[in-house]
């Protein structure tokens, strides 16, 4: 059976899809799986052993192209994807754009979420067969259940396995190495620099080697600030590639991060990981697995989770840490690392 998977972004969503691929590989070991994914994440998708071929798509670049260039690029991409004769297409994203891409493949059977389950119910109009999957579950479980429904197998007694650790089998685990992921895309998800410094100092006192991972100039400035306060800590002088960052996360004996793709990657790589949550909720998109913990303020503030990029409890334009994150103390994180 030849299967085409549509799940184009984001980085965290890519990681959330891996357990469903592991299920499929176990149930249908002879299936050939191709995966359509945004070109920026094509290398990540190839990490899973169930994937035969990754098919990059450049939607973000297409949006910026002129109409003539856009038409040419879409036509060329359509011709390339239709070279394969797929038995089944699964749209695991549930958006109008992903359902349109799925139809381009020309398969006789196109499966997706039904109108109670899809993020954009209009997408269901383009599917040949739809499946109800409760939206009250974690994103990982939703994708696993969609795959099981589309391919007719049961998830009973099926362990949750991300399946990508073997790709990094050449990386040895370091003893007492702590990696900190200090950045994220929303300011409301950020942790106070003083908390990072305190956590680093405590970890160093407990015998950890501490390394800070950064991905933007602002994050590099924070990493430098942490290292200035705790000179034994380290960070790379240049921004790491996703592959290089993954190798750091595999090597780590423990990871602390925020609600960001690299924290999800650490969890998918089966490293001991603690993720800090405030404005967003870990219930549906938090880290998952026995080796992970999601830490949020307890008791929760009445505004949590707000899912907002700006904090209503702070003045407009304020760079202060939101109360929901300020209340997460470094001591709590250290305690969780000992579990």
UniProtKB/TrEMBL annotation:
Q: In what pathway does it function?
A: Bacterial outer membrane biogenesis; LPS core biosynthesis
Q: Which SUPFAM superfamilies match?
A: UDP-Glycosyltransferase/glycogen phosphorylase (SSF53756)
Q: Which InterPro entries match?
A: Glyco_trans_9, LipoPS_heptosylTferase-I, LPS_LOS_Heptosyltrfase
Q: Where in the cell is it found?
A: Cell inner membrane
Principal localisation: membrane
Q: Which GO terms describe its molecular function?
A: ADP-heptose-lipopolysaccharide heptosyltransferase activity
Give the membrane topology, semicolon-separated if more than one. Answer: Peripheral membrane protein
Record EC number: 2.4.99.23
Q: Which reaction does it catalyse?
A: an alpha-Kdo-(2->4)-alpha-Kdo-(2->6)-lipid A + ADP-L-glycero-beta-D-manno-heptose = an L-alpha-D-Hep-(1->5)-[alpha-Kdo-(2->4)]-alpha-Kdo-(2->6)-lipid A + ADP + H(+)
The family assignment reads:
Belongs to the glycosyltransferase 9 family.
- Write down what this protein is called: Lipopolysaccharide heptosyltransferase 1
Q: Which organism is the protein's source?
A: Salinispirillum sp. LH 10-3-1
Q: Per UniProt, what is the name of the gene that codes for the protein in this document?
A: waaC
């Amino acid at each position: 059976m030849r299967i085409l998977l549509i799940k184009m972004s984001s980085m965290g969503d890519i990681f959330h899809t891996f357990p469903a691929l592991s299920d499929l590989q176990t149930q249908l070991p002879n299936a050939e799986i191709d995966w359509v994914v945004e070109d920026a994440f094509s290398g990540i998708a190839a990490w899973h052993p169930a994937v035969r071929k990754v098919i990059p798509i450049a939607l973000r670049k297409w949006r910026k192209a002129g109409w003539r260039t856009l038409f040419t690029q879409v036509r060329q991409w359509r011709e390339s994807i239709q070279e394969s004769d797929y038995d089944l297409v699964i749209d695991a994203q549930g958006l109008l754009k992903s359902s349109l891409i799925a139809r381009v493949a020309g398969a006789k059977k196109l499966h997706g979420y039904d109108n109670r389950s899809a993020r954009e119910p209009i997408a269901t109009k383009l599917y040949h067969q739809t499946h109800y999957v409760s939206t009250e579950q974690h994103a990982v479980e939703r994708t696993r259940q969609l795959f099981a429904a589309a391919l007719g197998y049961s998830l009973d007694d099926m362990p949750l396995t991300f399946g990508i650790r073997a790709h990094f089998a050449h990386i040895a685990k370091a003893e007492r190495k702590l990696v900190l992921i200090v950045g994220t895309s929303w300011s409301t998800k950020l942790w106070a620099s003083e908390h990072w410094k305190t956590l680093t100092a405590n970890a160093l006192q407990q015998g950890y080697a501490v390394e800070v991972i950064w991905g933007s100039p602002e994050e590099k400035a924070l990493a430098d600030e942490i290292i200035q306060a705790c000179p034994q800590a380290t960070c790379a002088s240049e921004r790491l590639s996703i592959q290089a960052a993954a190798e750091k996360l595999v090597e780590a004996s423990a990871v602390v991060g925020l609600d960001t793709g690299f924290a999800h990657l650490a969890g998918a790589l089966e490293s001991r990981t603690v993720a800090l949550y405030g404005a967003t909720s870990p219930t549906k998109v938090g880290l998952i697995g026995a080796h992970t913990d999601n830490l949020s303020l307890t008791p929760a503030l009445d505004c949590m989770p707000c899912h907002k990029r700006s904090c209503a409890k702070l003045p407009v334009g304020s760079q202060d840490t939101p109360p929901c994150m300020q209340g997460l103390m470094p001591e709590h994180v250290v305690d969780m690392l000992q579990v």
